Amino acid sequence: xxxxxxxRLAWHSNGWNGHICKNPCGNTYCVGQYxxxxxxxxxxxxxxxxxxxxxxxxxxxPCKAACGCSVNAFGKDTIQxxxxxxxxxxxxxxxxxxxxxxxSTACTWCYESMYSDDVLNKSGTAQxxxxxERSRKAEQxxxxxxxxxxxxxxxxxxxxxxxxxxxxxxVVAGISRLKKMGDFxxxxxxxxxxxxxxxxxxxxxxxxxxxxxxxxxxxPYWKYMDNEDVLERLVIKPLHRAPFKYGxxxxxxxxxxxxxxxxxxxxxxxxxxxxxxxxWKLRRDWLGSVLNELWIARGPYPGFxxxxxxxxxGSIEATYLxxxxxxxxxxxxxxxxxxxxxxxxxxxxQALPAAExxxxxxxxxxxxxPEQKLLLxxxxxxxxxxxxxxxxxxxxxxxxxxxxxxxxxxxxPYIIFEQYQGYDVDDVIPxxxxxxxxxxxxxxxxxxxxxxxxTERLRAFCVDELNRIAAHSFGKTAIILESVNHRLNRMPExxxxxxxxxxxxxxxxxxxxxxxLSRDENNTLYLYLRSVYEDERCIEDTFKALTDRPDIVxxxxxxxxxxxxxxxxxxxxxxxKAGRQYEAILDKQAEICMKIFTKPLCVLSGAAGTGKTTVIxxxxxxxxxxxxxxxxxxxxxxxxxxxxxxxxxxxERSTTIHSFLASNGWINNNFTLKRYxxxxxxxxxxxxxxxxxxxxxxxxxxxxxxxxWNSVQRLILIGDPNQLPPIGRGRVFxxxxxxxxxxxxxxxxxxxxxxxxxxxxxxxNGNGILELANIFIQEQQTSDENPExxxxxxQAKEEIFEKIQLDGNGDIDKDLGVYFWHDxxxxxxxxxxxxxxxxxxxxxxxxxxxxxxxxxxxxxALKKExxxxxxxxLQIISPYRGEFYGTDALNQWMQSxxxxxxxxxxxxxGVSPFDKVIQFRNRPRSDMAYVxxxxxxxxxxxxxxxxxxxxxxxxxxxxxxxxxKRMSQLEHIQVRFSxxxxxxxxxxxxxxxxxxxKDRWIPEQKVQENLELxxxxxVHKSQGSEFDYVYIVIPKRDSHLLSMELLYxxxxxxxxxxxxxLQDEIGTLTNLGHLEKSAVxxxxxxxxxxxxxxxxxxxxxxxxxxxxxxxxLSEYFVRSKSxxxxxxxxxxxxxxxxxxxxxxxxxxxxxxxxFTVTFRGETYYWEHVGMLDRPDYKAHWEKxxxxxxxxxxxxxxxxxxxxxxxxxALEIIMAHS
Length: 1217
Fold this sequence. Notes:
single chain; alpha/beta; 7-stranded antiparallel beta sheet; globular
């Protein structure tokens, strides 16, 4: 049985063709944290040299390409690369290894084997690992691949252009066949000590030469990086990620079959679009032959070796794996069956010791009949690991999320795919592994377990498809079916079948075991995962039950003044500087408190700075006053950072939702959420949940299941529905607000007045942040009841965009600046200049001062007045991770500019002393971090959560006698986080951390598993945090990743000033104001109402700019009913138009016509006008009319709000068409 291999490559912008990238500066991925090998390219890359020789062959520049291990994977020349000895070896211990790599050769290594428990040093010396054993493990790993047989699947790690939006993806780069497995290499001139300690000084890189170009190909991603539509069809992001880890890993025939099928699909796309990089028809034929080869090689029982292990017959496993034809495999299995029941004592000539055989037979007979049948007849057909099989057969299989009996699995093995989730996030069993075993190749002479058109198979296919649309609660059956049949058409003949919509009317009881079927008013069928449907009903039933309760009876009377007392901050400068405005805001807040105070279910929503926390604190204090101090509160949030914040601000105990669920037994051992079986919370009267917009459907439903509602008096949900939707399924908070507003408006309190911005205005610090954020509030984009709302929004947009056009490249208000940039050099220059100017302004330190430097200015800028660190003073935010404008490249650049000395001298996995960093891994009570307490002078354990920002510092162990000055390599580092609860703590990372409070050696705390640089962070990571100064980088790139909510979230992170850096012009900003750019509005959800979105809405990115003939979309994308009428009339008459397309005059001024319409080849601008009774609107309109007359005379068409709109619009259309 030939095993195949994955091989990780560092990203290359021109296809790993043996040449230096044509634009080295543009390739920021190869220096990313998840490049290959590790961060070595980032540490060794000579960017100036690469830029000077961009696009040239590496064969002409020996040992100069830092990406030499990867660059020649599809190259045509022989190249030479240099691999330096490990940095912790001393000077003179060894010289670099020089490797000569033939064409089509890349280097890889089996890192997983290097860190397994069986390579730990057991000799008692200080050295942690046994390098001789490591060397043997490497030999074993590479020996299993066969030259001329094994396939090589090339892939990029997470550092690639397709890892965005907090989603890490591996990406398949190409395929070929193993031609030659290179030799092991050793460093040169090795000292005797190194030779003994490190297995002769072996180099952890193994050259792998493929048969390309005779066999295989590289996917030409580089040709389509500016065409997102093609890339979406072309890119291969493996859903089953386990084979693509640790540099190189084994790939089974089943995994190979699935990847090759996806490669076939990619090749068909390339043929369709006319790509000429390769002869793709020949490549498609080659893939077809590979598939035939893989099906034969797979054999009838790819899982039988794992069965042997589970039966205690591991000693004969190697013999089975050496078999090469299916008849021998079947005969071997038959002999094992005979052995177990006592009909023979040997298998394939191998006899087992009598005592061992006796035990094996006894243990087999102790298994129940369904388990025996699964082990011998069913599971051998599936390429599962021994551990997966053991978990499936276990009585505790609920720990891997399997809730059915073994009998049910026997009847329908697709359940294994549908339910199994292992203890690792990548430990899943994909659909194809089960499908390949249920429908075996006819060549093997096995009966199919189910037929190719079975309803069970259809159900499993649908489950797989629904899992791929993770944001939506349901999908349209016809679209799902189209995708299923497309997949089926790529399968071998014996597995093909064409399902029809009518299949969903047959054997519905089988479908409904995992699916829920629903029809809309037009009888169109939609599908849910049953678990998702049940989650929605859980939320709906709970919330409706709470709203059906009578108002809460108060033990003591309370009036608005009591709330106002608690809301008013006695030391607020607003009392003296804006007393009347402040009193008016307090009156509104007190009115909201009174409105929602007695409601069993209520929502408090508002943007950052509107006083949500102050209102909640007032509500908590008054609950205690009217119900008693002993009232039980439970405050929760989806993130540890948010939970800590609400605890600090209210003084009440708080917890993360996950911690609450775990403490009550609602989380399985594999960290999935239980649907039943946990304990119900007790002795809680009031539950308050903060940051609700971040909570996905499953987590929300599980939380509600875990609460004893008989003991709960009120549930208060807090958040901002205009922020990013959750990373996960649904939009629970937005749906709940919409439902309550329609059915129970008294249960919703919306805070609209921004106190923080009032303070800014009073201090003369501007109002730009609020004005800009308001035009990206998705809730306010449409209004059926009040067209004045949308008219006012349009006016506000045009006014602020006009300011940006006129005053751009500077501040347009005292708290808002906008700068334009064209390329990487200009972005870095203007960003640095702006940040330096801001830092000088608020520190009073200036670069021209004697002894001042960028490093010193940066350090001072991140300090509070008392000298403590304040890393949240300023923050760069980018919506992207990759490219030069993404967080990865910006972090590298910022580190080199503002932490030059330390980043050049010391580096621990990319982090240096005095870097700004962010914790990305939760370290809750169950997995607390190791810290040093400055007060107690002791090591302790403490929590720290995803999103905490801090400053890295030199480790305390390296301070005595300034030991760090004599170090050549950092082994450890400490971080001070900004959270108030962490101020006296220094968190430990790295190795050799000393002993803990119980005198035990502290285990290694790997930087790459905890920390990232945080000079620049993503919008998602910024959510829940606030910064004084925010710098938002927005490239000119139309991407589905950019949304209205994303920009709104970024803007509202700023407390004092926000600066936006736009590439070239304002177009990207105006586009994000279009309705189709709302991520929340494009999620199919049905908690309170089943109203499916049109499929065109789900799959279009630029409706406003396309000449669509789809009247169904106008109600979703056009802001008012009047504009819908006009849009539908244009659509009905096939008149091309664009909606709110920016219109620029020659002087650079700009407005947003409601409709840009083409009549008989001539362009006109149609404005629909209302609110002329408002002086400010009327003045704005008159100014706009004059602008049209000056710049576009004779091209303005106007209708006015009124009952004759339809007739007026028709007359305009008839007159011009």
